[in-house]
Amino acid sequence: MVTEEQVRESLQGILVPGVKRSLTDMNLVRDIALDEGKVGVTLASSALNEGAQDWLRSKVKDAVGGLNGGTTTEVTFIDVKATEVNEIGSVIAVMSGKGGVGKSLVASLTAVALKRQGYRVGILDADITGPSIPKMLGVRERPVGSNTGIMPVISRSGIEMISFNLILEQEEDAVIWRGPLISKAITQFWEEVVWGKLDYLVVDLPPGTADAPLTVMQTLPVSGVIIVSTPQDLTNMIVKKAVSMARKMDKPILGVVENMSFLYVPEIDKKIELFGRSRGDEMAQAAGAPLLGTLPIDPELARLCDEGNIERYSSDAFASMTANLAGALKMPDAGNSGGR
Amino acid sequence: MVTEEQVRESLQGILVPGVKRSLTDMNLVRDIALDEGKVGVTLASSALNEGAQDWLRSKVKDAVGGLNGGTTTEVTFIDVKATEVNEIGSVIAVMSGKGGVGKSLVASLTAVALKRQGYRVGILDADITGPSIPKMLGVRERPVGSNTGIMPVISRSGIEMISFNLILEQEEDAVIWRGPLISKAITQFWEEVVWGKLDYLVVDLPPGTADAPLTVMQTLPVSGVIIVSTPQDLTNMIVKKAVSMARKMDKPILGVVENMSFLYVPEIDKKIELFGRSRGDEMAQAAGAPLLGTLPIDPELARLCDEGNIERYSSDAFASMTANLAGALKMPDAGNSGGR
């Protein structure tokens, strides 16, 4: 006689078409019933079209049927909303107020850092009109889905993501939309994407303090905000607007990352402060949060971003940011989280 | 007997309180009537509070009365909408789609270049949630006004400007608004600000292709768009969205400015392409418009921006951009424009 535990384990190995994560990780297994040698498996049909359902039905039958030399298996699909399937530990919003300071860079690096530590991570690209995430992570697939939801796409290292640029015909197409449509798109990314089980969902916000950040802070259970700044005084004035918004919306600030802090020129072994002296500590103080890192202007990093290879980046500055991030998130020991 | 011409000339010297531009430049003189030794001057009261009206009344009486040894002068104020007072030659929108590429920098430099050539120039800062213009030009005054309009503020070199940051209590206050309010603010900057006579109004757009640029392109008579990019491939993808928007809205693209093209390190006499090789020509081709300039990353320029002294900037790159801009705008010979 097979046990529920054995059945559940056998489902671990079945990857959901499109996302390449297992049925259990995607939280699609809704029920396992054992009855006189018969096994009934109920799966959520969320975002699965008919072909995907047929494929999964046969894979589940094979896996469970193989357990004890021919258990009869019945697979039933039920409609479940994406929001009921999703189990997301923490939602972290990356914001700045100012454009071009490296929000998408910091959002991606945050996701990469958490993924490398063994957590299950997703990125929700809330910059609908200027999305950078897919390009940085080298993802170009179109998300698959059905009338019950959308599947995220998966990066090389296994980070789930959704971005409006994945939905456009051409990545250079403009989304000429007013606020209500922008907000609706973000809400759909939250409510209709089947994220499954995630330890962290990183949200990349567009510049400004208007519709997109407002919708994210009002609709998503944001547990913390990472603020991104650069050394320029001009930038800092605008970044402080973002700090002020996070405060008004009662969202705790986890920390500050200063980007483009300096440029190291190896020929003269010198750090040049291109945009003035670092103001990271000042900004951290203004935000009442730790300085998580100061990232240099790094031509190598710019190249990796352009190539879609940000997941390959490593540097002392990034290692230090990763360590500080772990502290700020008060994370359990990496590897003990049940993440993979 | 005084002539209308003499009266008009005498009004040239009277500066409107708050803007430090003359009554005639602000286009507030609506009528001059001569009748048997009496002179009647009708002024628009737009944006002038009672104190300002009284002050102007007495200044006009002094100036006209002094013309011919005691002409009796009557000054009448009439309510005229700002839109009727304003005579604006060309509206140039500076856009990019991407944040932080230097839109405000290019908008300011465009205004400075035109001003130095003798044109009457204003800047409308349409970035309501992240306005940079006042800081770059070192302006902190609050705009004055009345219930019939708002006066712009004036930079050291005489550039008119309006920005939401001039209206905030604290420059770091966040404007947490959804699109309709953002659009309303921009529309007010166009309809209720008394710009007077301008040769060029430069509009600094926020990132994205949502409410703000849409409102500017639908509400203002934009005669041309300047596109700002940087060498990064990632940036270019998003900048092309702005190009696509300008096309869809039937707005001609005047040219492309590539910012942060390179860094010159004097110690090694070398140009470093920090964000990859220049793609200015490529972007210009994609936009179907000339490349107006490639600006380097210049720590001196960053400093001037932080200090509010961008009007003092000069460099070879800026000189070349100025010359190309003149060509793109097909400007009449500088100095012959009647501008001051």
Task: List its traits.
homodimer; 340 residues; alpha/beta; GMP Synthetase, Chain A, domain 3; 2 domains; 8-stranded mixed beta sheet; 3-stranded mixed beta sheet; elongated
What's this model, at a glance?
The structure is a homodimer of 340-residue chains. In chain A, 34% of the residues lie in helices and 22% in strands.
Give structural notes.
The structure is a homodimer of 340-residue chains. Chain A has 2 domains: 77 residues, Fe-S cluster assembly (FSCA) (GMP Synthetase, Chain A, domain 3), CATH 3.30.300; 249 residues, Rossmann fold. In chain A, β11, α8 and β12 form a beta-alpha-beta unit. The two termini of chain A are 30 Å apart. By secondary structure, chain A is of the alpha/beta class. In chain A, α4 packs across α11 and α6 packs parallel to α7. The first copy, chain A, is built from 11 helices and 15 strands. In chain A, the strands form 4 sheets. An 8-stranded mixed β-sheet of chain A has the order 8-9-5-10-4-11-12-15, sandwiched between helices. A 3-stranded mixed β-sheet of chain A has the order 1-2-3, covered by helices on one side. The longest helix of chain A has 16 residues. Chain A is elongated. Chains A and B meet through α6, α8 and α10 of A and α6, α8 and α10 of B.
